[in-house]
Design goal:
Elements lengths: L6 E7 L11 H6 L9 H9 L4 E7 L7 H6 L2 E5 L5 H13 L4 E4 L1 H5 L9 E4 L6 H9 L5 E4 L26 E3 L2 E2 L10 H5 L4 E2 L2 H13 L4 E5 L8 H17 L4 E6 L8 H9 L2 E9 L3 H6 L10 H10 L3 E8 L9 H11 L4 E5 L7 H8 L9 H4 L17 H15 L2 H12 L23 H10 L4 H14 L4 H9 L1 H21 L21
Helix pairs in contact: 9-10, 12-13, 13-16, 16-21, 17-19, 17-20, 19-20
């Protein structure tokens, strides 16, 4: 690899094709950024390439890909997730039209390789397990090929430090890092265990701190997101890491604060919650999915059934971490409407920001295999299907057991109720009474960066950009400050997200209502009155 020939490599991060729940474009703009996060996968691949290769990065979510960019390149590398698939294919077309070899990698091509047959190269699986084969083939003159890594065999302790130097930090709300891959649970709908396995593989403490050192050296200050699909999947490793992280932060005057994703059993471990607080974790995404125990059991998410979910969320709040939550509608076990029960749980738990989606059978999951065997799965993904793909409206790619109109109606009702301005503001007020940040050692220096939502100019920009009624949000913020000054910055950040989730929810509701209207009404034969039943019996 060190003796490789010179090569100009253009790494292209594709656009998220549609407005998605996680786009947060208005919030990014309010904080002076262009997009929430950079492409951690691509800059990790960049670190795996030969040192003699010259690498540039273009993120199509923050900047334009120009003809000059493509003319400079000897090779183009692109990759991403399903909502980026449409733009990935556009990038492939642009490259092929200019005669530039293009390689596609990442979770989307790994799960749906046939969708990307127009690319010169398809690289499937974890890059560390196959990149050497790809480079050797390129060096030998190959200009087409399919390369596939053996599943779950990558030793992440040997993964090199991502090329953070390729990033324009000012473009992003936060920067991502990764401590571990994989999740020990077996949720039927989830593709993480299919892509990365059920045995979480963690980096070493020194390796992880070196990545943070590099971000610090490059001048980044602010929010860092641990993008692990379940940070606590390997509790032993993360509990050993967090004290070292806390010491690292204190020695550098707290330049970062952190968010992550974890399973709800985090709430059961008081020691772990304290460690996360001391290591300056301020928020966590939790997959709740459904309020119905039978549905959770059917989807193989039994870990969510062994508890009172709202009380579990409140314990996480008491440790000083806010919660974003995920919910899904459309499971087979939903024999009747789940909308009101879901809204009731969200309100009881006081979770302001909830990503509610329609169930989607992702490629190669247990769910997809079951539906395909039953003949209920819709045709495989086509290019035209992904051009406007987002996780909120492209779901239900299978025949539902409940009437489709009912499922869609449930979904629209949940969004309408939880993102009503008064309901959202009410959850913020209740959260402010529970979010305990008084035990944090000090106010993080991260607020000296773009994340300082206490700045008067930024505060005005956030409030003025919120949808009507703005007076409601102004009063809500004043009440939150009065009840919990230590958590004001977190509450304001969550309030700022309403700039996106409020209008986005209304747009999704309109699209869902259009889908319902397009479904032909089900013809139901009139029931025969009981008293007349005998006259319809055969002679």
């Amino acid at each position: 690899m060190l003796d490789a020939q010179a090569c100009n490599v253009l790494m292209v991060c594709p656009r998220f094709e549609a407005e998605t729940f996680w786009s947060f474009k208005r919030t990014s703009k309010a904080f002076g950024a262009k997009y929430p996060a950079p492409p951690l996968g691509l800059i990790t691949v960049a670190a795996l390439l030969p040192r003699s290769w010259t690498i540039r990065l273009v993120n199509r979510n923050t900047e334009e890909l120009t003809g000059d960019d493509l003319d400079w390149a000897d090779l183009v590398l692109t990759g991403g997730m399903l909502p980026q698939a449409g733009d990935m294919l556009d990038v492939v077309d642009l490259c092929r039209a200019r005669g530039k070899p293009v390689a596609v990698g990442g979770p989307s091509v790994t799960s749906s390789p046939d969708l990307y047959q127009t690319a010169n190269f398809r690289v499937l699986g974890e890059a560390e397990g196959v990149i050497d084969q790809f480079v050797e083939a390129w060096e030998a003159g190959a200009r087409e090929g399919l390369f596939e890594a053996e599943k779950f065999q990558v030793d992440v302790t040997k993964t090199p430090m991502p090329r953070f130097d390729l990033l324009k930090f000012d473009d992003y709300l936060h920067i991502g890092v990764q401590f571990s891959r994989g999740c020990p649970f077996t949720c039927e709908f989830c593709d993480i265990i299919e892509l990365y396995g059920r045995v979480p593989r963690a980096k070493t403490n020194a390796q992880m701190l070196a990545e943070l050192d590099e971000l610090y050296r490059l001048g980044y200050r602010g929010l860092v997101d641990f993008v692990d699909d379940n940070l606590i999947g390997n509790k032993k490793a993360v509990k050993a890491f967090l004290p070292d992280l806390a010491q690292w932060l204190e020695a550098r005057d707290y330049p970062f604060e952190f968010t992550t994703e974890a399973s709800i059993n985090l709430a059961d471990d008081h020691e772990l919650l304290i460690l996360l607080n001391r290591a300056n974790f301020v928020g966590v995404f939790v997959g709740i999915e459904s309020p119905d125990a039978a549905t959770l059991i059917a989807m193989r998410k039994k870990q969510n059934t062994r508890r009172n979910i709202a009380q579990s969320i409140h314990r996480i709040y008491a440790a000083g971490l806010f919660v974003h939550a995920g919910f899904i509608i459309g499971f087979d076990s939903e024999t009747e409407s789940v909308a009101d029960a879901m809204v009731e749980l969200i309100e009881e738990a006081a979770i302001p920001v909830c990503m509610v989606g329609l169930l989607y059978a992702l490629p190669n999951t247990q769910l997809t295999r079951r539906l395909e065997k039953a003949g209920r799965l819709h045709p495989h993904l086509r290019r035209e299907d992904v051009m406007s793909a987002d996780q909120c409206t492209m779901g239900l790619n299978f025949g539902t057991l409940r009437p489709r109109q009912e499922v869609l109606g449930d979904y629209a009702r949940v969004l309408q109720l939880i993102y009503d301005p008064a309901a959202f503001a009410g959850r913020l007020q209740r959260l402010a009474k529970m979010l305990d940040n008084c035990r944090r050692k000090r106010r993080t220096r991260a607020q000296d960066s773009r994340g300082d939502s206490g700045n008067i100019e930024m505060l005005h920009r956030i409030i003025s950009n919120l949808p009507e009624p703005r007076e409601l949000f102004g009063r809500t913020l004043a009440q939150c400050v009065a009840s919990n000054r230590d958590s004001t910055r977190r509450i304001l950040l969550l309030m700022a997200l309403y700039q996106d989730v409020g209008p986005f929810s209304r747009d999704v509701i309109a699209r869902i209502e259009g889908m319902i209207a397009a479904i032909e009404p089900v013809v139901i034969e009139p029931r025969v009155p009981v008293g007349q039943a005998s006259s319809h019996l055969p002679n």
